[in-house]
Specification:
The protein has 304 residues and is α+β, with helices and mostly antiparallel strands. The chain folds into two domains: 137 residues, 3-Layer(aba) Sandwich (Aminopeptidase); 140 residues, Aminopeptidase (3-Layer(aba) Sandwich). Strands 1-2-3-4-5-12-6-11-10-9-8-7 form a twelve-stranded mixed β-sheet, sandwiched between helices.
């Protein structure tokens, strides 16, 4: 294979329909090559306020041979990527990483998590070469259409799209559920509600908000994210009812696949999801890099 100097790398905030088709086609090639279910980002949540490129496309001529996504906020981002199997061992992965790292740092970014599927030998070797350290792991779980239906919900339980006045009480409930800052969660909910591919929902019992979640409409699936029940209402069956509603809302909108991600150490949540018809299909490691690497970057002539 020819040297990577023949490859051009271009930056995007969002993909055109044609580019999206190319990215999904390359994902299928990479998935099939190693038996994977690659996690990727597909564009900036808000291109008007984004400070660094969300997507990098590597081409040789008209052929897409590499792809990288950066998904996060001003200080922290997740990086995901893939390289055509025919173009590996040409340092293309290092070029994509370095291009993304430099843009992120120039915009004031501080921390990058690299997402790598455990089943990806090539991905793990790449991160080993960068001396990345595993920070935590998540399972991806997918709903099985043959799962038993959920029990009927009581009349005083409901799930509906969140209204602006719901965001503060929902953020408070999720802050208690996740042990996170309420202000940050409120900002995330407000931003997500303004994005066409994101839908924020609240669950109510007797009119009171007891939890909520977000549906993320991705090109190849619909994901359930930020799923949480206020601790005061946990272990009473409301999480199971809310999960059933989330799955039903996704399938009613034509989702070919309904998925969610859960920390591998969160045994209670995994048990709930399994008993609700979701099955683990893969596991992702989240890796961090040394401050020195993030600050100074890669010398591509030394990368192996």
């Amino acid at each position: 294979m020819s040297d990577t100097t023949e490859i051009t790398i271009s930056a995007r905030m969002r993909l055109s329909d044609g580019e999206l088709a190319e990215v999904l086609a390359l994902k299928r090639v990479c998935d099939d090559h190693e038996g994977l279910d690659l996690k990727l980002g597909f564009g900036a949540a808000d291109p008007d306020t984004a400070t660094y490129p969300a997507l990098l496309l590597a081409r040789t001529g008209q052929r897409l041979v590499g792809f990288c996504s950066l998904d996060g906020d001003a200080t922290t981002a997740e990086i995901c990527g893939m390289v055509d199997p025919d173009w590996r061992r040409q340092r293309l992965g290092f070029r994509l990483f370095e291009t993304a790292r430099a843009a992120f740092r120039a915009a004031g970014g501080e921390r990058i998590f690299a997402v790598c599927e455990d089943a990806s030998a090539s991905g793990r070797a790449f991160l080993t070469a960068l001396a990345a350290q595993r920070a935590f792991s998540e399972h991806r779980m997918v709903w099985r259409p043959d799962a038993a239906p959920a029990p009927a919900a009581p009349d005083d339980f409901s799930v509906e799209r969140a209204r602006p006045e719901d965001f503060e009480p929902l953020a408070a409930a999720l802050a208690r559920a996740f042990d996170q800052g309420e202000e940050r969660l409120l900002a995330d909910l407000t931003m997500a509600s303004a994005i066409a591919t994101e839908q924020v929902y609240v669950a109510r019992r007797a009119g009171a908000i007891i939890g909520g979640f977000r549906l993320s409409i991705l090109p190849d699936s619909t994901g359930i994210y930020a799923f949480g029940i206020d601790p005061r209402y946990q272990r009473q069956g409301w999480g199971r009812q809310m999960l059933a509603r989330a799955r039903a809302l996704a399938t009613a909108q034509g989702a070919a696949r309904v998925s969610l991600e859960v920390d591998t150490d969160n045994a209670p949540a995994i048990a709930l999801y399994r008993s609700s018809g979701f099955a683990i299909i893969t596991t992702y490691g989240y890796y961090i890099f040394s401050p020195t690497l993030l600050a100074t970057g890669l010398r591509l002539d030394e990368a192996r």
